[in-house]
Amino acid sequence: MALGREHELHTRRRGRNLGLGLTLLAFVAVVFGLTLAKIGGGGGMQAFDHAPRSELVPETGK
């Protein structure tokens, strides 16, 4: 039995696996890009940590 020759079923399966792999890679890239876009502009955001912060208190008119 020759090992060099592939059955037609294996060729079709390889094509489907490649398509699925590329689709999953594109999905991961989109999620990663959205994550970077969402946290990229949040440099001025501050979390609530139960500590008073003077920069979060609104200024009173003088």
Return the string of H and E elements: H
- Rg from C-alpha positions? 27 Å
Oligomer: single chain
The backbone outline, from C-alpha atoms, is rod-shaped
* Main sheet overview: none
Taking pLDDT < 50 over at least 5 consecutive residues as the criterion, the unreliable ranges are none
What class do helices, strands and sheet pairing give?
mainly alpha
Instruction: Assign a percent range to the helix content.
Output: 40-55%
Describe, in short, the structure shown.
The protein is mostly helical.
Task: Characterize the structure shown.
With 62 residues, this protein is mostly helical. It has a domain at 9-37. Helices cover 53% and strands 0% of the residues. It is built from one helix and no strands. It has one helix at 8-40. The chain is rod-shaped. It starts with 7 loop residues before the first helix and ends in a 22-residue tail after the last helix. The chain crosses the membrane at residues 20-39.
